[in-house]
Amino acid sequence: xxxxxxxxxxxxxxxxxxxxxxxxxxxxxxxxxxxxxxxxxxxxxxxxxxxxxxxxxxxxxxxxxxxxxxxxxxxxxxxxxxxxxxxxxxxxxxxxxxxxxxxxxxxxxxxxxxxxxxxxxxxxxxxxxxxxxxxxxxxxxxxxxxxxxxxxxxxxxxxxxxxxxxxxxxxxxxxxxxxxxxxxxxxxxxxxxxxxxxxxxxxxxxxxxxxxx
Length: 213
Fold this sequence. Notes:
Number of helices: 8
CATH architecture: 3-Layer(aba) Sandwich
Mean pLDDT: 88
Helix content: 40-55%
Strand content: 15-25%
Number of domains: 1
Order of helices and strands: HHHEHEHEHEHEHEE
Structural class: alpha/beta
Distance between the termini: 35 Å
Radius of gyration: 16 Å
Low-confidence stretches: 34-50
CATH superfamily: Vaccinia Virus protein VP39
């Protein structure tokens, strides 16, 4: 099991994963597809998607934790917390590395749920939640950033990357979920280009990039 050294967090994660699994069926019934990749960017889409988990799986969560621990990431930034499943894996790694997580969420109802979720764990003091459009709320965030997780609006992956690129340290990791979505094509093209200063590998729908020295 992962995060057994944080029993309250483990219990919260178990409950969230169970709720997300139930939510997957509701998503399929509502949208007629099992594809959970989205590109919300307008008010209507935001309202429709605000009720759904759109969460990482347990395996993906463990991958995020392992990657963050492996590079000793002490300053982690997340774009798109949703209901906080990925946030807890990342925050646990940050805490284990004596660091912190800065996460973002635009939907007000999800932000209210996130605050309650974080408060129910041992990790609340290791997490900073920025409410609002991450393209604005992340502007004051300084470096060095050790790891960036992209899992919000796919069309915002590139703007968020470009905003934070100067603050990403050499050796930093950028993990982009659902990167094969058409709206993330511009981001993928940039991080796969030598001009980005990154080396990138894509497996299934996850792109992992490393910032080169």
